[in-house]
Amino acid sequence: MKRFKRELNITIKEYINIKKILNSLEHYNYNNKILNIAFKSGYNSLEYYSEIFTTLVGVSPRTYKKYILPVNNLTDDEINIIRINLTNLIAIDTKVKKYITNQKPKELPVRKLSIFN
Question: DSSP characters for the chain?
Answer without folding.
Answer: -HHHHHHHSS-HHHHHHHHHHHHHGGG-SSS--HHHHHHHTT-S-HHHHHHHHHHHHSS-HHHHHHHHSSS----HHHHHHHHHHHHHHHHHHHHHHHHHHHPPPPPPPPPPPGGG-
